[in-house]
Write a structure and sequence with these properties.
Oligomer: single chain
Radius of gyration: 22 Å
Structural class: mainly alpha
Distance between the termini: 27 Å
Order of helices and strands: HHH
Strand content: under 5%
Number of helices: 3
Number of domains: 1
Largest sheet: none
Number of strands: 0
Length: about 80
Amino acid sequence: MLTFIVLLFFWYYNTCFCGIYINTQSHLCKDSLISEVTSLLIPFALYLIPGIFRILALRIKKPNRKCVYKFSMFLENWLG
């Protein structure tokens, strides 16, 4: 509920801002889109890296498998 109230406040604030500064609407929309895409892609990439090392751990030979798996666990704990 609190999140919904805060979002309504920001929506009202942005509406007032764009009503006063009409020439900033396109910049605000473009920057909002870039921010949204960035906030979706960065976590996806950060969680993909340990997954790649887990796949490698399954595909490589027996002696090095445990080392690569532990490295993927380290990355998962460090990134996430």
